[in-house]
Design a protein that fits this description.
The protein is α/β, with parallel strands linked by helices. It has 9 helices and 6 strands. It has one domain: Rossmann fold (3-Layer(aba) Sandwich), CATH 3.40.50. A 4-stranded parallel sheet has the order 1-6-5-2. Strands 3-4 form a two-stranded antiparallel ribbon. α5 crosses α7. It is globular and about 50 Å long. The chain starts with a helix and ends in a 6-residue tail after the last strand. The relative contact order is 0.16.
């Protein structure tokens, strides 16, 4: 199967999954994803939402905790290819449970909730709209195995809600590699080197990359560098959760 046909098949499968999710939501009473209590029209009940691990003042570039919200020493010493990061939560319990269910158990309804959390954080920080959104791509093999790209599912909702175009073609992963989650932090940048390609002209455009979790930022920085090589004037990350290093 050609890459084009494989991509068309994956998109059709994704649409079918989202349609089934929407039908199930309309037909069944809503229960909280975390405690199973009644949650009205929301996926997370008020009590559980109040206890989610929100980030405090952080580095505006990488979103790691930083006194006074100043740029952290690591970003000053080794600036990444991206300019800024918006992260709604720390990747800790119970956010890790929600993202795991979304990513590996087909709970696609969580794309809507994830997009809402990211946009709420963007509004809190008073960030302006970018010119284009890009979902962090999966390899063809990984997407076929999972059936969907969780970053793309979030990005579609974000694009629809904020009216920013989503580049769904022309930005792709060209080299499969072991999942970042199974590798030591120190080796992740090398694992994704040369992993992405961009075939569209982004000259002068400000881009926001959408993803579910930012750990070391290696994949996001690699993709940001690829987008800059295609002419992007600025690149920032919009993620649902930020992994904190052990010291935090």
């Amino acid at each position: 199967m050609s890459n084009f046909l494989a991509g068309a098949f994956d998109r059709a499968l994704g649409r079918a999954r989202r349609g089934a999710v929407g039908a199930a939501q309309r037909a069944l009473p809503q229960r909280c994803e975390l405690c199973a209590a009644s949650s009205g029209n929301d996926l997370i009940c008020v009590a559980c939402a109040r206890d989610l691990p929100r980030l405090g003042p952080g580095c505006p570039v990488c979103a790691l905790p930083a006194p006074g919200g100043e740029v952290c020493g690591s970003c000053l010493a080794h600036p990444p290819a991206f300019d800024a990061t918006i992260a709604a939560f720390a990747y800790a319990f119970p956010i890790d449970r929600l993202i795991h269910a979304f990513k590996y158990q087909g709970r696609l309804a969580l794309a809507e909730w994830s997009a809402g959390a990211v946009l709420a954080e963007r509004l809190r920080l008073k960030r302006s709209d970018p010119d284009r959104l890009v979902a962090l791509p999966l390899s063809i093999e990984r997407q076929r195995e999972r059936g969907y790209n969780q970053a793309a599912e979030i990005a579609r909702v974000v694009a629809a809600r904020c009216g920013v175009p989503l580049s769904s073609a022309g930005v792709r992963r060209i080299r499969a590699a072991p999942p970042q989650a199974v590798l030591p932090w120190a080796t992740r940048a090398r694992n994704v080197r040369g992993a992405f390609a961009c075939d569209v002209d982004l000259t002068g455009l400000r881009i926001a990359i959408i993803d579910d979790v930012m750990t070391t930022g290696a994949s996001l920085s690699e993709l940001a560098g690829t987008l800059r090589a295609a002419g992007a004037a600025g690149v920032e990350n919009w993620v649902v959760a930020r992994t904190l290093p052990p010291a935090h």
